[in-house]
Structure formats: C-alpha cells, structure tokens
Design a protein that fits this description.
- By secondary structure, this protein is an all-alpha fold.
- The chain folds into 2 domains: 1-115; 122-262, no CATH class.
- The chain is 69% helix and 1% strand.
- The chain contains 9 helices and 2 strands.
- The chain has helices at residues 7-26, 32-61, 68-89, 95-111, 124-159, 172-203, 212-228, 239-263, 276-280, and strands spanning 281-282, 290-291.
- A two-stranded antiparallel ribbon has the order 1-2.
Length: 297
C-alpha cells in the first residue's frame, strides 16, 4: 500500500489546498468552509508525504538523510507542518506562502538525486545531527524571512494608512517577536550544523576538498553570530527591522548554498555518493557480493 504513495499524491493535495487559499482571497478570507477544506486537504497531503518518507527513506535506507533528495523532501514536509501549525495559531494565510515553497522543495528533491550515500560516508549520529541542524536552520530562516517581509509590508501599510487588503497580516508586535526568535534560533542551529560538519571533515576521513557550502556556511554562521551580540543601539535604530533584514539575508544565503551543494559541479553532496562502478556492488574479502539498494524512487 505504501509503495503506491508517490510525489504526485501529496503534491496534488498541496496544489488543491493552495487553490482553496487563493479562493479565500477572492471570496471571503473568513469563510470557514474554505478554510476547513484547505486545512483537511493539506493534512491529507501531509499524511501521504509522511507515508512516502517512511517507505522510501526510513525503510529503504534506515534513516531520512541517506540522499540529497531525501533531505529536501524532509524539508518540504517540515514546511507543511509549520503551515498547518500557523493556520491554527495565527490569523494569517501562511499556507498561501508556505505551500508553494513546499511544492518547489518537492521538485528540487526530485532533481537533487536519490542515489543513497555510500555506507563509508554515512556517519550515523554525527551526520544525522549535522543534517538535522542545517535542516532546522533552513526551516527557521524560511519562516523568519517570511515574517520579515510581512513586517515591512505591515509597517509600510500602517504608515501610509492603507485600507485593509483581502489578507489580514499579523500585528507588528507578533511579527517582531517571531523575527527575533527566528534570528536567534537560526544562529543556534547553524552553529550545531557547522560543528557537526567540522567533525566530519576532520575526524571521519571525509574528503577535505572545499566547496561553496562547506566554506560559506561557517562564514555565514560567524557573520550571523556577530549580529546577535548584545550591544548598545541608538534609540532611532529599528531593531525589529534589523532582525527582519537578518532573517532575509540568512534565508537567501542558505538557498544559494543548498542549491550549489545539490547541483554545483563540485557539490557538497556529490562527493558522498560512490561512483557508478562502486555503487553497483560492494565486495569484501570474506563476504559474498552484496547489492546496494537501488534508488529510492
């Protein structure tokens, strides 16, 4: 049964839910029926997505981060979970922005490659911590950047006394708190991810060849950390705007690093995949030939 669940299943659910969200803008943002339809369809897609990850990643490869495509698919799943949570706690159509992001990440997961990393290059606990921390940093940066854009949008609307549009934005106080939380949380997650990557580079025998992701991520962490140090600020300085800008910059940088790691000529993930001649079979001196599991899709 789980074998039949594919990317088309949950992607179609997310697309239908997005149409419901657009319909809420067109007809009535307070329409409870449209909201219920959107939420239920998104929830069904989330369940199908979870089944897909369970069968194609956990059962086939023993963990969710055995391939670059699996990492992006888990990130898309986490984005949908955030959209479901915010749909209940915030009076804003966050799904209108997060569902297209989840669809884009699902497409990237298909294009990023689904060949499992070689067992020698897969350090269970450290690599899982490294991948999870960077996933959380990326997720938080997405959320922080979205809140940052909403903050500037809402502030500009209030300054110009613009009439309320078809979509109600959260208050500036709520957006300010979320931007501050995202800015701090992204630095912590980035630090854990960088520490895990440093350990893998130095102590696990991983190739020391540098690439944009392995060099840029530590630099981004150091720059982001410096901006979080407590310091005296002028009264006229808008701290909320600084936090919003911080989140947007970190989000853009993370997107560039991730895309280069997945599709660059010397991508970060490509060196974790054995050549085709080695990935077909693994042979030891005293053991028979063992076939490596095929691609997860």
């Amino acid at each position: 049964m789980l074998k039949g669940v594919g990317v088309v299943c949950f992607s179609a659910c997310y697309l239908i839910a997005l149409f419901f969200e657009i319909a809420r803008l067109r007809f009535s943002k307070e329409d409870k029926l449209l909201f219920a339809c959107s939420y239920v369809v998104t929830l069904l897609g989330c369940i199908a997505h979870a089944a897909f990850l369970y069968y194609n990643d956990l059962l086939q490869n023993d963990h969710f981060f055995a391939s670059a495509g699996g990492w992006f698919s888990v990130l898309a799943f986490a984005v949908v979970l955030v959209a479901l949570f915010l749909s209940l706690v915030a009076k804003t159509q966050f799904s209108l922005f997060l569902l297209p992001l989840a669809l884009a990440l699902s497409v990237v997961s298909l294009r990023a490659g689904n060949v499992a990393f070689t067992p020698a290059a897969t350090c269970i606990w450290v690599r899982a911590t490294h991948a999870t921390a960077l996933l959380l940093a990326t997720l938080v940066s997405f959320f922080g950047a979205l809140c940052g854009v909403m903050y500037f949008w809402q502030r500009n609307r209030l300054r110009k006394n613009v009439a309320e549009s078809s979509m109600t934005l959260p208050s500036l106080e709520w957006l300010s708190r979320m931007c501050r939380f995202a800015a701090n949380a992204s630095v912590v997650a980035l630090g854990i991810g960088v520490a895990g990557g440093f350990y893998l580079k130095v102590f696990s025998g991983t190739s020391s060849q540098a690439d944009l992701a392995s060099v840029g991520t530590p630099c981004l962490f150091l720059l982001a950390l410096l901006t979080r140090f407590p310091k005296r600020r002028a009264q006229s300085l808008d701290v909320c705007a600084l936090n919003s800008t911080h989140n947007i910059v970190v989000c853009v940088a993370m997107i560039v690093f991730l895309l280069f790691a997945a599709f660059g000529p010397s991508g970060h993930w490509k060196r974790l995949i054995a050549p085709e001649s080695e990935s077909t079979v693994l042979k030891t001196e005293n053991e028979p030939i063992i076939a490596v599991p095929p691609n997860r899709r």
